[in-house]
């Protein structure tokens, strides 16, 4: 027998969805809405049978899952009506919901590794909780799904993937885009599979319970395929599907058949549900919307003037980074290290992970060549309260994780109205001058700055990386760390100067100021990362050949930029040169110079120095010409 509680829950979902469409037609909803009319029993069967300590990640068609799992009708309606009483304060609207272990995002595929990371956190904590991630058949075209299926199978991560197969990817029929058998895709990764449909309600509820029990008792993943059909358009817009096809599925729909078979009970339930929705609507009408001050706080430049001498280290930078992780993983059991080829004795391409897997085998994860899944799993771990450090083997490969940075890590906190924190750290070696050629020598820094709600830090040879990573460890929001490949082998003790004072300020991410002892500087050079070392090593040459006296400002945090010390220096010199290893066009220098001009109350001259706009060649003679060096900087100053 079918439980009438399940029928009432499915009918509530349908009436809420129909109410949203009515509200949209009246202009009372902003944006879009993707309804699950016809698919309700998938939500009831899975989301409705999980424990509240379990979790769900859902997609753009998430309302049914949300209602079944949270029972929060008020929060959902208020959210879509743009009220701050909504589950995400009206910020996320239809696709971006967060409440009591429920998360949704409208990006196809990307939620799967995030869910895997959240499930991995449960496994590490041995709390017995599991998770479900809902995808559609259209998501089967996303590569990150298969990256994640491989990993959850190899690592025995307790995650269920529920694929709601409604036979369309927006307006495109499945036969146009999808080849092969859906279940065989999961079976290829040795993942146990189940299959149900939303027309046989008794069976889907029983099968969902079986698959939930399988994941919980075995600690392994499963893939549950649910054949279903949405009776409405993809969103609120046009529906180009054949009318006879839609009618065929309307005739099969359980709720429609239930109404025909038991009109009295259906009508009773409908009255109760409509009264509940009407009551919520009348209350929500009076709720207010978020103010800009509740949503956004402006970042201000520092005001510190405390300076101290740089402390030189007689250890290689890479050894200091390695020491940080050895020490921190001992102190903090929530610290996790992920990356490709990082297991010892190899310890990663640049040996940052040396001995880590020997000391902390349960918290060091060597991933396949799957950068998207690696970053997504790290995001999920962070959402679940861990401090994951994700190593991208070469900076060139960050292009493969941009979806997880931009559409997930950077947005979780704000789009969920402060309900979630994602303190993930993504770190990567960057830069050339080692002859690795076009795809392993790039400086991708300019693509990693300007991403809202993400701090970007560039290590340099003068500040002990243990200090910087200790600061990073305390961050509650995402951080990207750029480590220069040439600096890995440097000791800061090699960068002492006789005629210059090298100091750092007291900020969390210090600014370094290199000033002449006995002369007043007449030009300001601003740089960061690996550029600092070669500029310092050649300052005397620069003075001799240009007849100019420089003050050098080395930034540690390159986003958001703190302009305080740059402005102070340029106010004195009136001449600014920004040096970066990446191509100067549309780069970090462009942004910094624009920021200085915007903030300054005086006129300045400024010039960008960067790499030539071509791929970086492996041959040494050409690489030295393409990448900026001291001769490039000298010529820029001479030819001002």
Q: Strand order of the main beta sheet, please?
A: 2-3-1-4-5-9-8
Radius of gyration (CA) equals: 28 Å
CATH architecture group name of the largest domain: 3-Layer(aba) Sandwich
The geometry reads as elongated
Whole-number count of domains: 3
Give the CATH topology of the largest domain.
Answer: Rossmann fold
Q: Which structural class should the secondary elements be placed in?
A: alpha/beta
Distance between the termini: 85 Å
The beta-strand count equals 23
Largest sheet composition: 7 strands, mixed
Q: Which features does this protein show?
A:
alpha/beta; 23 strands; Rossmann fold; 7-stranded mixed sheet; 3 domains; 18% strand
What does this structure look like?
- The structure is a single chain.
- The protein has 640 residues and is α/β, with parallel strands linked by helices.
- The chain has three domains: 4-267, Thiamin diphosphate (ThDP)-binding fold, Pyr/PP domains (Rossmann fold, 3-Layer(aba) Sandwich), CATH 3.40.50.970; 314-489, Rossmann fold; 497-638, 3-Layer(aba) Sandwich (Rossmann fold).
- It has 25 helices and 23 strands.
- The strands form four sheets. The protein has a seven-stranded mixed β-sheet with strand order 2-3-1-4-5-9-8, sandwiched between helices. A seven-stranded mixed β-sheet has the order 10-17-18-20-19-22-23, sandwiched between helices.
- It is elongated.
